[in-house]
Design brief:
The complex is a heterodimer of chains A (about 110) and B (about 110).
Chain A: E1 5-7, E2 10-13, E3 19-24, E4 31-38, E5 42-50, E6 53-57, E7 64-68, E8 74-78, E9 87-94, E10 104-105, E11 109-113
Parallel strand pairs in A: 2-11
Antiparallel strand pairs in A: 1-3, 3-8, 4-5, 4-9, 5-6, 7-8, 9-10, 9-11
Chain B: E1 5-7, E2 10-14, E3 19-24, E4 31-37, E5 43-50, E6 55-58, E7 61-66, E8 71-76, E9 85-95, E10 98-103, E11 107-112
Parallel strand pairs in B: 2-11
Antiparallel strand pairs in B: 1-3, 3-8, 4-5, 4-9, 6-7, 7-8, 9-10, 9-11
The chains are: A mainly beta (about 110), B mainly beta (about 110).
Chain lengths: ~110, ~110
């Protein structure tokens, strides 16, 4: 099976712009989660989607949003970018029904905000 | 914060030696997972241990879980240069608003050849 793929791998944006990141889960996986990783805050949970519904949400402002399509592919959007949004954004999929199950991570999208 | 905390933050060992890292957490959990990350790339799942399990093995990896102390340890035996990576524990916890997977700050392991 192909692994989790994320596009683009690298992205440079300017403050105030918005960005959309994409994640394709492993075939058959219905749960997709997003994480932000920074040197200062570490790995932080953004949200999880399951069967096109946001099921869990972390403590991020409303500028961070996401959605999941019927084929389980997911997108994450960040509006009005701030310098602090520079991070590695990781997507993970799971074949289980909860976040208690093994997560399969993609390679990440490295976002730089200037 | 419900985040797990790893100890030590960094570890440097010679190839062939064992590496041990610990994870402590604050709330009751269903499972605890360990992941490895190589230099800013995606995480790779290593092992999952359920709250009713005390020890689990996978190849050169040994994980223990002590729910009374809310702690877990990961032991890598006979380390190799390829084990150089950051290791994270992740705990799941359930709250009224839904469950989350919370990662610790990680242990950076350097295995010198």
């Amino acid at each position: 099976k192909a692994g989790v793929t994320q596009t683009p791998r690298y992205l440079i944006k300017t403050r105030g712009q918005q960005v959309t990141l994409s994640c394709s889960p492993i075939s058959g996986h219905r749960s997709v989660s997003w994480y932000q990783q920074t040197p200062g805050q570490g790995l932080q949970f953004l949200f999880e989607y399951f069967s096109e519904t946001q099921r869990n949400k972390g403590n991020f402002p409303g500028r961070f949003s996401g959605r999941q399509f019927s084929n389980s592919r997911s997108e994450m959007n960040v509006s009005t970018l701030e310098l602090g949004d520079s991070a590695l954004y990781l997507c993970a999929s799971s074949g289980g029904s909860t976040l208690s199950d093994e997560q399969y991570f993609g390679p990440g999208t490295r976002l730089t905000v200037t | 914060s419900q985040q797990g905390e790893e100890d030590p933050q960094a570890l440097s060992i010679q190839e062939g030696e064992n590496a041990t890292m610990n994870c402590s957490y604050k709330t009751s959990i269903n499972n605890l997972q360990w992941y490895r990350q190589n230099s800013g790339r995606g995480l790779v799942h290593l092992i999952l241990i359920r709250s009713n399990e005390r020890e689990k093995h996978s190849g050169r990896l040994r994980v223990t879980l002590d729910t009374s102390k809310k702690s877990s340890s990961l032991l890598i035996t006979a380390s190799r240069a390829a084990d150089t990576a950051s290791y994270f524990c992740a705990t799941d916890w359930i709250k009224a608003a839904g469950n989350k997977l919370t990662f610790g700050g990680g242990t950076r392991v350097l295995v010198k050849p």
